[in-house]
Amino acid sequence: MWQATTAVATTPRGAEALASPRYELIPLTGVMEQASHLPRGATVTVTCSPKHGIDASLDLAERLAAAGFHAIPHVAARLVTSRSDLQRILDRLAAAGLDDVFIVGGDAPSPAGPYPGGRELLEDLDTLSRRPRRIGVPSYPEPHATIPPEQMQAALDVKNALADYTVTQICFDADTILSWLADQHDRGLRLPVYMGLPGVIDRMKLMGLAMRIGLGASTRVLRRQAGLASRLLGGSTYRPDALAEALVPAFDGPLAPALAGFHLNTFNQIAETATWAEATAATLHPCPPRDAGQAHTAAGTPAGYY
Ligand SMILES: NC(=O)C1=CN([C@@H]2O[C@H](COP(=O)(O)OP(=O)(O)OC[C@H]3O[C@@H](n4cnc5c(N)ncnc54)[C@H](O)[C@@H]3O)[C@@H](O)[C@H]2O)C=CC1
Ligand SMILES: Nc1nc(=O)c2c([nH]1)NC[C@@H]1CN(c3ccc(C(=O)N[C@@H](CCC(=O)O)C(=O)O)cc3)CN21
């Protein structure tokens, strides 16, 4: 559980980050209704898979934008069929006023066109018109299942000059994320980092997804915490409490300048994840009565700053 007294005094920026995360949605039936549980104007991103294709992500992003959200579609490089297809996508984004896009390699077993990965697409995009105002790219605190670490690092180094921000792949271990951040900072990463967390999701479902998308060794926490009692009760739900507790303070520590926020992979458990984020952020800044604002903690941080 949260140590509310310490947290209030030390993590105002972290609490704010948790209160306004990016929510990642999958373009499946019912998602618009589920999205209505999100705060008005929330930032939502739309995944892009070989199963649904790029246009399903763009369609949903357009609908979410029309409903008042700040919508960010993912575009998978391996699903783009040609250079003119890429220009068509850029034109469609511009026409819809979608000015922020997340470019990923994508999970297609082979490229449908000239782009084997996000890196190659970004390099080509630089020569085309209508670049979105902001471009995000993934990054990996844990090794990728198949792409060698040197190749991933080389791709990130190129993207460091071509993109505007990065979102970390789901990782269940806060120390791994924080030491990766420090290492990337030392190597000259200039992209602001959104830390990618799983949302509030059934453990078994999360374990299956983790295997399918090739997450790293930290996935073992799902096994360790799925205790006998909860299994007897017919399953248990993962909550990213331990990650939030360890990562929120980083927004007020030495790595703060490198951090942009949190990105919650909801897997469409949208209401549960949003409720968790809001409630957890609220425990961090419980808005004490006004006169508490005069008091100061031992560390000199005004109590009741939030
Ligand atoms: N973290 C995320 O949100 C997502 C991650 N992915 C996975 O990550 C991989 C890498 O994507 P990005 O981080 O955007 O980096 P990227 O696509 O820029 O890949 C890095 C380098 O590895 C090569 N590469 C990419 N996919 C490959 C594959 N499937 N097989 C062999 N080589 C490949 C690329 O040519 C590139 O030079 C994707 O292929 C996919 O498996 C896919 C979608 C979303
Ligand atoms: N390798 C990889 N690919 C991704 O697409 C991806 C990541 N990693 N890491 C973070 C998130 C997680 N994402 C996901 C994960 C699962 C589904 C998924 O299960 N979608 C469909 C099934 C699609 C299919 O079978 O191809 C679903 O029915 O839930 C979608 C996006 C997108 N992002």
From TrEMBL:
<comment type="pathway">
    <text>One-carbon metabolism; tetrahydrofolate interconversion.</text>
</comment>
<dbReference type="GO" id="GO:0009086">
    <property type="term" value="P:methionine biosynthetic process"/>
</dbReference>
<keyword id="KW-0560">Oxidoreductase</keyword>
<dbReference type="GO" id="GO:0005829">
    <property type="term" value="C:cytosol"/>
</dbReference>
<feature type="region of interest" description="Disordered">
    <location>
        <begin position="287"/>
        <end position="306"/>
    </location>
</feature>
<dbReference type="InterPro" id="IPR029041">
    <property type="entry name" value="FAD-linked_oxidoreductase-like"/>
</dbReference>
<comment type="similarity">
    <text>Belongs to the methylenetetrahydrofolate reductase family.</text>
</comment>
<dbReference type="GO" id="GO:0035999">
    <property type="term" value="P:tetrahydrofolate interconversion"/>
</dbReference>
<keyword id="KW-0285">Flavoprotein</keyword>
<dbReference type="GO" id="GO:0071949">
    <property type="term" value="F:FAD binding"/>
</dbReference>
<protein>
    <recommendedName>
        <fullName>Methylenetetrahydrofolate reductase</fullName>
    </recommendedName>
</protein>
<dbReference type="Pfam" id="PF02219">
    <property type="entry name" value="MTHFR"/>
</dbReference>
<dbReference type="InterPro" id="IPR003171">
    <property type="entry name" value="Mehydrof_redctse-like"/>
</dbReference>
<comment type="pathway">
    <text>Amino-acid biosynthesis; L-methionine biosynthesis via de novo pathway.</text>
</comment>
<keyword id="KW-0274">FAD</keyword>
<dbReference type="GO" id="GO:0106312">
    <property type="term" value="F:methylenetetrahydrofolate reductase (NADH) activity"/>
</dbReference>
